[in-house]
TrEMBL record:
The keyword Isomerase does not apply. Keywords: Ion channel, Ion transport, Membrane, Potassium, Potassium channel, Potassium transport, Transmembrane, Transmembrane helix, Transport, Voltage-gated channel. InterPro entries: Ion_trans_dom, VG_K_chnl, Volt_channel_dom_sf. It comes from the Bacteria. This is Ion transporter. Pfam families: Ion_trans. It is a multi-pass membrane protein.
Length: 276
């Protein structure tokens, strides 16, 4: 009996830890407090990474930056271990070994791991002092915000629902870039062999023109080339606006579905929630 009580208490504790760390499953006061503190810590870390690049500031507050990094790593490491320990509360991760391995390979867990990895890599004994890219990896902590913001889940659903349309629009854009580069190469190569030396080289002009950036380092000088550039620029405005229209439609549909779900959960007479 005592063993059963301990097992039930252990499972309740694990479930409670999971609810406190997961903003989608929680909803209590302490759940909101803990997640708000983690969000603040993530934002402070992003600010610290940026400020460390100011050499005078970093030299003057080197010890402060170091202590803050140690504090942050301690919190993020504890958070990661607690998530790994309590993930078996989720049905698809319920197996104590295979479930945790599956959780480690999930997108959210990989982001959490990448957020703490730059700190532990130098401790492995490898000479990584020259890899300043480790500071850049610390920006992965930004993506930890995704699990705490409702807006990020809306964005994921929109991209998931419109992935085929977005893929087609991206393919169309790449096709247009190649066709524009090919046409301009054959028109301008004889006149400017140094700037339009090949189709891959001409793709730089194609991207700059289609995106209407127009850096001006590569431009046509023939009449046919100028006319072709004008047509391609106008076509590029509409083509690059296509993904924006698809995403706008996706967001509109998602908000309508959300309103429908809220309406279905409310009383049609008084408007009060049917389930608390």
């Amino acid at each position: 009996m005592n063993r059963n009580n301990r097992d039930r208490g252990y499972k309740r504790l694990k479930k409670k830890v999971h609810l406190l760390l997961d903003p989608t499953d929680g909803g209590t006061f302490w759940d909101q407090v803990i997640n708000s503190l983690i969000v603040c810590l993530i934002l402070l870390n992003l600010a610290a990474v940026c400020l460390e690049t100011v050499e005078s500031l970093y030299q003057g507050y080197r010890s402060w930056f170091r202590n803050f990094e140690l504090f942050s790593i301690t919190i993020f490491s504890i958070e990661y271990l607690l998530r790994l320990w309590s993930c078996t509360c989720i049905r698809k991760y319920r197996h104590p070994l295979k479930g945790r391995l599956r959780y480690i390979l999930s997108a959210g867990s990989l982001v959490d791991l990448a957020a703490i990895l730059p700190f532990y890599l130098p401790l492995s004994g490898l000479d990584l002092r020259s890899l300043r890219v480790l500071r850049m990896i610390r920006f992965m902590r930004f993506f930890k915000l995704g699990r705490f913001l409702n807006a990020s889940r809306v964005i994921r659903r929109v991209f998931a629902s419109k992935k085929e349309e977005l893929l087609i629009s991206v393919l169309l854009v790449f096709t247009l870039i190649i066709l524009a580069a090919s046409a301009m190469y054959f028109v301008e190569h004889d006149t400017q062999p140094d700037k339009f030396s090949s189709i891959p080289e001409t793709m730089w002009w194609s991207v700059a023109t289609l995106t209407t950036v127009g850096y001006g380092d590569v431009y046509p000088i023939t009449s046919i080339g100028k006319t072709l550039t004008a047509c391609i620029s106008i076509l590029g405005i509409g083509m690059f606006a296509l993904p924006a229209g698809i995403l706008a439609s996706g967001f509109s549909e998602e908000f309508k579905r959300k309103e429908a779900r809220v309406a279905a959960a409310c009383c049609p007479h008084c408007g009060m929630a049917l389930y608390e």
